[in-house]
Design goal:
The longest helix is centred in the middle third of the chain and has 21 residues. This protein has one domain: 2-Layer Sandwich (HIT family, subunit A). The protein is an alpha+beta fold. The chain starts with 11 loop residues before the first strand and ends in a 6-residue tail after the last helix. Helices cover about 25% and strands about 15% of the residues.
Length: about 190
């Protein structure tokens, strides 16, 4: 029979000891924890596409509007993330199928950096954002959705953009459609600034 948890101890059920987190010894820190077990799909075996199916290799072979490409350079290009964290979430990818930033050529690194800077300027103009999250997840262990093809994330952020939809309703509030965002960013992209 289970012990009454109101008596201060954890209940025992069929020889299984249950513990309450309020009884754990812990040192508080400044971090909030958001448990996201759904992200395990990014690190489980077999979740990466075959190189022949790499979306970042296929995208440049398609029409810009269909592939959500906003700008093309010589060594790299910029496209909207199909599964954005925020409206205007861009990716900068080299054309070459290369996994690591340290495997990129000097020309690719230079152009990825240049396209990133231009994307930030364009998003400040079109999306009126207050800041950015920039980053590359290198390898499956780091959470890269497409680990075998290098890509840099540019996520616009606003001072008032926090909401509880992702936490409570497992929903992201994206106020603009991808095609609309692609058109705005592509139209604002400076000619010859790649």
């Amino acid at each position: 029979m289970a012990e009454d948890s109101s008596a201060g101890g954890a209940p025992e059920v069929d020889d299984v000891q249950l513990e309450y987190s309020s009884e754990f010894a812990a040192v508080p820190d400044a971090f909030q924890r958001l448990w996201t077990p759904h992200r395990m799909v990014y690190i489980q075996d077999g979740q990466q596409p075959h190189p022949d199916d790499c979306p970042f290799c296929v995208a440049p072979t398609l029409d810009d509007e269909k592939a959500l490409i906003v700008a093309r350079g010589t060594h790299a290009y910029v496209l909207l993330n199909l599964f954005p964290y925020n409206s205007g979430h861009l990716l900068v990818c080299p054309y070459r199928h290369v996994a690591g930033y340290d495997d990129a050529t000097e020309d690719e690194v230079r152009e990825i950096a240049s396209l990133t800077q231009t994307a930030m300027r364009v998003l400040r103009t079109t999306a009126h954002c207050d800041g950015f999250n920039l980053g590359m997840n290198q390898g499956q262990i780091a959470g890269a959705g497409i680990a075998d093809h290098l890509h840099q994330h540019i996520v616009p952020r606003w001072a008032q953009d926090a909401n509880f939809f992702p936490i409570i309703a497992r929903t992201k509030a994206l106020p603009q459609l991808l095609g609309e965002v692609r058109r705005q960013v592509a139209d604002a992209w400076p000619a010859g600034d790649n």
